[in-house]
Structure formats: C-alpha cells, structure tokens
Amino acid sequence: MTAPARYGTIGLLFLTLIFDGFDAVAMSIVVPTLSRDWHLPPSAFTAPLVATNVGVVIGLLAANRLCRLLNRRTVICLATLVFTLGAFATALAGNVALLTVIRGLTGLGFGAVLTAATSLAADIVPDRWRETASIVVPLGLSFGGSAAGFVGSQVLATLGWTSVFWLPGIFGLALVAILFWRLPSVESAATVSDGSRATVRDLFAPGLRLTTIAMWGLAFLVFATMYSLDAWLPTFAVDYGMTPAQAPVSSAVKGIGGLAGGAVLVFGTMAFGARRMMLFFLALAAVCLGVAGLVPIGTTALLALVGGMGAGLIGACVGQVGLATRIYDGDRRTAGIGWTLGIGRVGSIGGPAVAGLLLAGGGNPRTVLLIMAAVIVAGLAVTVTLGRKGVVEAEEVRAPVS
After folding, report:
1. pLDDT given at position 220
2. CB-facing half-sphere around the CA of 64: CA atoms within 13 A
C-alpha cells in the first residue's frame, strides 16, 4: 500500500470513529431534555445508557471472531451501518423500554467498529508508527463526542432531541457507501504458521499472562469511571447550575479535553513511554474529579475541571489501546485490543448503572464524582504496582501463538 493510500485509509477510519463517538454521546446529552419532556427523573434513563455499553462489550468481544469469519473491511462497513440505523431508530423511540432495546443493538456496532478499525490502522503502517496510528484513530471517538456536545446544544434548542440522531444518521449512510467503496481489505501482518488464528487463550501464553491480567484490571477501572462520566455529565451539569439546553456543552468540553490529552499522549509516549504517560493522565483525572466533588464551584470552574477530566480519562483509555498494540503482535493484535477494550467496557456497564442507582437513591453528583476519583486512584495504584513488578515491561516478551 502506498503512503497516500495509507494516509487516506487512516483518515477514513478516523472519520468513522468520529461518527461512532458522536452517536455514542448523543444519548447522554439528550437525557436532561427527555427527562423534562417525558416527565421522568433522569435516573429512569439508566437502562438505555447501560444497554448501550452492554452492546458495546458484546461487539468488542465478538469483533475478533467476526474479523476471522469475514474480514476487517466488511466488519467495519457492517458495524457502521448498524449504528447508523440505530441512530434513526433512536429518534423514533417513544418510551424507555424501546429505547433500551434500540441502544443495546446500536452498541453492537460501536464495539465492533472500534476494534476492527484500530487493528486495521495498526497493520497498514510501518512498525515504528503502529502505536501512533492506534492512538490517533480512536481519538476520533473524542472528536465525535466533542462535536456532539457543541452541535447537540444548538440542535436541541432549535430542532428538538430527535434531530440529534437524525443528523448523524443521514451523514452516516453516506459514510457507509464511502467505506464500501474506498476501504481496503488488508490481512493481518502476521498469522500463525499452521494457518490458524489467534484466540483469547493466546493472550495468556507464557510471557503475556501477567500483562494481560494487568491490562484487563486497569481497563476495567478506567472505563468504569470514564463512561459513568459520559453518561451522567450533562445531568451533573444541571445540578451545578446549567439549563438542560446548556448542559451538552459540558460533554463538548470533555471531548476537547480528550483531544488535547490525545495530542499530549502521542508526543509524550515518544518521549517518556506509555506507562509514565498513563500515570500522568490518571493523576490528572483523579485531581479534577476530586476537586469538583469537594470544592463548591460554579459552572465556569466546573467546565475547566471537566476539560481536565476529559484529558485524563480519555488519555488513559486511548493509551491502553497503544499499549495493547505494542504488546500483542501480528494476528494476536485484534484479539488483544478487542478483549482489553471489552473487559474495560464491562466496567462501563457497571459504572453508569451504579451512578444511576446512587442518584436514584438520593445521592448528589458531588458524591458520585468523589467515588469516581477514588476509583481512578485505585487505577493509579495498580499502574504504579505494575511498574515496580515489571509486568508491563513484559510486553517485550513475544510468546509464540499456540
């Protein structure tokens, strides 16, 4: 593949994840409006928010098998079509039960496209650029989430909540056509000598076992926190003094912080290494969450802290993708990325659900933010411990695929 073709493909994959990120965040930014229009408390929308993450987990864990049966190009195209149709269906939903089913099915597309797109990006670039490519492409999620916050704020005020889904659905159909037309089909850079394909069992081969367990545990903690914040941030913003129409701006600011964090991650990893950057981002997120929970602040200070939360949490999440790309080589890469993200997304199911239960039980947003800060501190401790034990450094050991 020529260099221009590589850049074009990376750009197309990045664009795909922009739409993924937009649609994924769209549900959370309409919750305050739906709560008012449907005369329901915000906690009533816990089910559709959690169902989305359940679908994502299934999509992430199924992506490796789907890519083996079909190919990554086909999986990316079909998964994009799934979440595009899901956007249309969401706009037509009239009750929470139907919304829950639709968002669960939509999440399948979110998860499958992320794994396949990141794996494909890593395999079409030279070795020295693999970590960078695997960081850049997932940053499309953050860009899309930021766009959803800004666009959603305007669209909610003028056209109503359904337009937040109609717009990405229409553009998504055009994207699907472009993907089928332009996306290349590239086999994994290295397959097993006997012609078989890597499975989850190969992630626990000698030399990888402790690293895999460590990556999964850290992913669970970080994703639980990030997606709890994604799901409930607009609702929290209302408690801090914003109107339902203004609340989506908080998601936009978080996305901008995430993009800034991603830029720092790309260059910081080259200079200081991935583990040190993970420590930095986790510490940043913990401080911002703790201050927002402990200190009486207004909306301006909240948005500043939200930017720091976004940089820290998204930097940590995307940094894990870069680590997985480096740890798992060849045909094992798709499985390694998918299962790391999948286990992390198990946390993304429990996190928003627990936060919703706390809110339903009379808890206030500041208490929830403090709990999130404590979880990130635990993740920070895990990362420090892993560094001392040398577990992450075991990524240099390449065990043969069974």
Report:
1. 93
2. 22
